[in-house]
Design goal:
Layout lengths: L1 E8 L11 E7 L3 E5 L4 H5 L6 E7 L7 E8 L8 E8 L5 E6 L7 E5 L11 H17 L2 E4 L2 E5 L16 H22 L35 H10 L7 E2 L11 H4 L9 H6 L3 E5 L18 E6 L5 E7 L10 E2 L5 H42 L5 H6 L6 H11 L6 H5 L6 H11 L7 H7 L12 H24 L3 H6 L1 H14 L20 H23 L2 H5 L22 H8 L2 H14 L20 H25 L21
Antiparallel strand pairs: 1-4, 1-6, 2-3, 2-5, 5-8, 6-7, 9-10, 11-12, 12-13, 13-14, 14-15
Length: 669
């Protein structure tokens, strides 16, 4: 039998291989061993990015091609092949597709690309999928993380399995060391510009050194206005903090007299609440956290009003949870510096909650636990593995770096944010409140009472997120319906059941700061509809939700006064005492500003190797039906992108964080 074999090597700089290769085709009738050691030309051309074709004659006809086994003689030279195709010249030119897309150091077995569920496989194929799952369970043991979701038990990036590491050392080093390098450059350069910060304008001088291509974040021109302050809670980097208000909580006793003249429409506060025009942010979760000497933050609350002209304006701020004489309610009617300082404390509180919870815990950590459990329980031939693997790219790598440079003792949050020293405690409190059901975006908007676009206009995060959610859901539905012909198939999927069990028991365990907490992670899925919802939550969180929480960081945190991550002076307790010098002293040193600029610039930068939503450079699906579904998804995303760009042309501040063309497939930064 003659076999035509085509082999692709991936493009990473060190993906190529030199050495002897034994390829075994595993088939229904028998196995055929092919020795490539005599193909000298093949070996030499097997470099990074190469595509090699060759013909081999073998006495055996393997029958139906189940898998290939690749064995390398040179175990000091890892190899990363991409797609391998094998065509039998049997009169029908039968072709098998073998999506490798993994690093091989000794040997690897790769199933033929057709996606199957376990109950559809024969005994020989079942043995192959079980062996793969057992291998990954050994490679990815769980490690408990205090009262947080678990993660894989590896201390640093370079100890991770090679398939989970950053391929490009430059990208790894940029994520790990980039911010530190930018801080040093800024600190050296700023000495030639000024010594001390004496005005808000001084914060714009850092950008003369080239960070952000020398462009000052546009918020620097309007950050102090109420209009801009309110807009950022709808369209900024933490757009899911606001809640609709049915009635004011007793702990925030705002009166009509206090907000008189700020509501417009000639209504009382209660009438505005009844009309759906009053919204609130509440950072109660910060209450009781220890704060280091010389740093300040408060569990602040803010009240907002939607005006007749569709502006979203702050009308009241209280800096602590307990009302009283030393905790006044601040309003726009107060002295300029009083009101500005209250807004700064509210934004500082928002920054702590955003970075530790909204960004890190509720996207990075939740996704890592979910996907690690998936790797431990689904073989590569499973259709859900093929659907989800593009959305796992580099997530374990970036999170492992984050545990050693961002969230850890001595990391950025610990040394440069007000919550430093209590960041893990805050994350634990946040995980205690985590509810998987709120990953369902439409349900989350309903629960927060922010879904009505007529009552809350200009909430472009909501508008764009719902459109993206629908496109993702339709794509997921297409894939699920291809491989699960009925609800009965979902019920019969034992690997899915094991994934959910592992996720509940280990990945997202039911523990909190005060005993067990039900996070409502699905324990079983018995219909296609429920499976589609579960998968849509995962894909949306990996892609769109992380994009919304991440890529605006430099735009809003880059100019320090707009949203300081650390404050160094206590909050005001009496009205009429705040001065501009007090505010500038609280905003901190040039090093504080440099660190905030550098870290947020690094975190918000797109990689040169970024893969955006709907793009699948690795061909895990090879059948016609899923590829047609992918093409439809790509077309719909392109049309949505054009639609949103057209909408943005008419906006004073375009909302671009959920443009499909700027939403990466996975959490890689």
């Amino acid at each position: 039998m003659e076999y035509d074999i085509k082999v692709q090597t991936m493009t990473a700089g060190d993906a190529g291989y030199e050495g002897d290769i034994k390829l075994t085709i595993i088939g229904s009738a028998c196995d055929a061993e092919i020795d490539l050691s005599n193909d000298r030309w093949f070996r030499e051309d097997f470099g990074s990015g190469s595509k090699v074709s060759f013909q081999i004659k073998n006495k055996d006809d393997v029958g139906e091609m189940y898998a290939i086994k690749i064995e390398l003689s040179n175990q000091s030279n890892a190899w990363k092949p991409g797609m391998v195709t094998v065509t039998k010249q049997d009169g029908n030119a039968t072709t098998g597709y073998f999506p490798c897309y993994q690093w091989i150091t000794t040997e690897a077995t790769v199933r033929e690309a057709k996606a199957t569920l376990a109950f559809q496989d024969n005994e020989k194929l079942t043995a192959l999928r079980r062996a793969e799952v057992e291998k990954w369970k050994k490679l990815l043991p769980w490690r408990d993380w205090q009262s947080m979701p678990s993660h894989s038990d590896y201390p640093d990036h370079d100890s991770l399995p090679r398939d989970l590491q950053f391929e490009d050392s430059k990208q790894r080093d940029m994520n790990h060391y980039g911010a530190e390098g930018v801080v040093n450059i800024l600190l050296q350069g700023i000495k030639d510009i000024f010594k001390d910060i004496e005005s808000y304008f001084d914060y714009t001088k850092f950008f003369a050194l080239g960070v952000g291509h020398g462009k000052v974040p546009s918020v620097s021109e309007r950050w102090y206005t109420d209009r801009e302050f309110g807009r950022q809670f709808l369209q900024g980097v933490h757009p899911d903090a606001i809640r609709g208000v049915d009635k004011l909580p007793a702990k925030f006793p705002v009166t009509d007299e206090q907000v008189k003249g700020t509501l417009g429409r000639g209504v009382t506060l209660q009438q505005a609440i009844n009309a759906g025009h009053i919204y609130m942010v509440d950072y109660e979760i910060l209450a009781g956290l220890p704060v280091r000497e010389g740093r300040y933050m408060t569990p602040a609350m803010g009240l907002f009003y939607v005006t007749a002209s569709h502006e979203f304006l702050p009308i009241a701020i209280q800096l602590y949870q307990e009302p009283g004489p030393g905790n006044p309610i601040w309003t726009p009617k107060d002295a300029h510096n009083d009101w500005l300082y209250a807004k700064i404390f509210l934004r500082c509180a928002d920054a702590q909650v955003h970075e530790v919870l909204g960004h890190f815990l509720f996207t990075h950590v939740i996704v890592e636990a979910t996907m690690t459990s998936m790797l431990r329980n689904l073989p590569r031939c499973h259709p859900l593995f093929k659907l989800l693997i593009p959305h796992l790219r580099y997530t374990v790598a970036i999170n492992t770096l984050a545990r050693t440079s961002l969230i850890n003792e001595g990391g950025f949050i610990d040394t440069a944010m007000s919550v430093g020293g209590a960041q893990i405690m805050l994350a634990g409190k946040g995980y205690k409140e985590f509810d998987w059901r709120l990953l369902n975006l439409p349900d989350s908007f309903l629960k927060r009472k922010v879904k009505d676009a007529e009552k809350l206009p200009g909430y472009y995060y909501r508008d764009d997120a719902l459109l993206l959610w629908d496109e993702i859901r339709h794509f997921v539905q297409d894939i699920v319906h291809i491989y699960y012909s009925s609800d009965g198939d979902v019920k019969k999927d034992e690997e899915l059941k094991k994934w959910l069990a592992d996720l509940n028991e280990s990945g997202l365990p039911q523990h909190g700061l005060s005993g067990e907490v039900d996070h409502h992670v699905p324990k079983s899925l018995d219909t296609r509809k429920k499976l589609i919802e579960f998968l849509t939550c995962i894909v949306f969180c990996c892609s769109a939700q992380h994009a919304a929480e991440n890529f605006g960081q430099f735009d809003y945190y880059g100019y320090n006064p707009n949203a300081p991550m650390v404050l160094h002076q206590p909050p005001p307790t009496k009205k009429g005492e705040v001065t501009q010098k007090m505010i500038l002293d609280s905003l901190g040193t040039t090093k504080d500003a440099c660190t905030q600029i550098a870290v947020t610039w690094t975190l918000a930068a797109f990689s040169d190797r970024e893969v955006y939503l709907g793009n699948y450079p690795e061909e895990h699906f090879t059948e016609a039906a899923p590829r047609e579904a992918m093409q439809k998804f790509q077309t719909n995303l392109r049309l949505l992108d054009e639609r949103l760009k057209k909408r943005n042309e008419g906006l004073e501040v375009p909302y671009e964080y959920l443009l499909p063309s700027q939403v990466p497939n996975s959490i890689a930064v």
